[in-house]
Amino acid sequence: MQDSKKVADICPTCGKNRRRDAVICGVKYVFHVMCECEAKKEETEKKARESRDRMQKIEKLQSLLLLGEKYKAVTFERTQTGINPSFDAAFNRCEKYCELYEKTVKNGYGIYIFGDKSIGKTHLTACMANFLISKYVPVLFTNLFEISKAVESTFNRESSIFRRNYSKQLGTKNYIAKKRQ
Ligand SMILES: [Zn+2]
User: Fold this and answer.
1) Would 44 be classed as within a structural domain?
2) How far is the CA of 20 from the centre of ligand 1 (A)?
3) Distance of alpha carbon 116 from alpha carbon 119, whole angstroms
4) CA angle 175, 180, 181 (to 5 degrees)
5) Range of the domain at 125
6) Residue 35 in this model has a pLDDT that exceeds 70
């Protein structure tokens, strides 16, 4: 028993004895001391574990994001610029906002994008959302319709009446105010 244990204490790779015996205050202690290959293995496993955790975290953040399929893979890098100067200006601002996210997001600064329909506002916000998630910043990609639905769901029993009466007014302040009467 003692011998087989000793054999297991010898690293099969570098041959180092990883067992240390000591007597402290008359009590025998056995310590395990990592050899270099063992430490390296542990480090590799730790990195793999961290990488897996990061991926899981990003996947979880993505699932909470509620971003449409169309926008799941959009990034600043893959966005074509140089066509519309006003889009480029907005693009640069959004990208800068993200690059400085540690100051902007964490200090509660927002960014307001406005412009005509189909000019790329959603695209830019999706680029921002995807960038921020890659930095583990939780993002909720939503709109007034979704927010209103979430509010509605908190009213349970009356929600169908609520939906029938007010769903066409979604996005207006009345929607929430009327329900609270
Ligand atoms: Zn070893």
Assistant:
1) no
2) 15
3) 6
4) 110
5) 66-134
6) yes
Are 102 and 130 in a shared domain? yes
Q: What is the pLDDT of residues 110-160, one digit of tens each?
A: 999 888 888 899 899 999 999 999 998 888 887 777 777 777 777 765 556
What's the gap in Å between 18 CA and the centre of ligand 1?
8
User: How many Å lie between the centroid of ligand 1 and the Cα of residue 5?
Assistant: 16
Residues 85 and 117 in one domain: yes
Q: Summarize pLDDT for 62-77 with one digit per residue, the tens.
A: 887 777 788 888 999 9
> How remote is the CA of residue 7 from the centroid of ligand 1, in Å?
13
Give 49 Cα–ligand 1 centroid separation in angstroms: 21
Instruction: For residue 109, give both structure tokens.
Output: 């600064």
Predicted confidence at residue 144, as pLDDT, reads: 76
Beta bridge partners of residue 21, listed in sequence order: 30
Domain count for the chain, please give it.
Answer: 3
| Rounded-to-integer distance, Cα 80 and Cα 91, Å | 10
